[in-house]
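To whoever is on call:

I kicked off a structure prediction for a single chain this morning and the downstream step that reads the tokens threw a length-mismatch warning. I double-checked the sequence; it's 170 residues and nothing unusual in it as far as I can see. Pasting both halves so you can look.
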Amino acid sequence: MQPPLKEYLYKVLVVGDLGVGKTSIIKRYVHQIFSQHYRATIGVDFALKVLQWDENTIVRLQLWDIAGQERFGNMTRLYYREAVGAFVVFDVTRASTLEAVPRWKEDLDSKVTLQNGKPVPAVLLANKWDQAKNGLSSELPKLDQFCKENGFVNYFETSAKVKPSCLPKT
């Protein structure tokens, strides 16, 4: 007799400044598509990624795409509720988006916690890595220390435009 199917639903936030590629990352991950013609997210949008973890386990990831505009900041507490993790995204070609990362992390930490009262785990995504030579590439080796100082679990170099196998190794 086969064991019963286990299903899990996890809400994961995707936050960062306007234009860093949050929607593009989500569309690439969930639908395997990329477009350079997304409109700015207004408020919040979300996508669902269903993973067959093993033969007896289904994991549903609800990816909440939170608008990067400052004016939606007062609504984020509602959007953040019940999240169990977060991705904070910045654009490697725009230093101001990396400078804004600690503010996003502080916003997360002040508005949502796990059931045990600890902050939700957050991962930093250095997006548009395919364009790193045009941006902050000299700053990026310091991301290990940046993550430790700002309470991130880790960071990853990403590109919604380029398939992961095509990204340069660092």
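Update from on-call: the warning came from a stale cache, not from the record. Cleared it. Sanity check on the structure: The first helix runs from residue 22 to 31.
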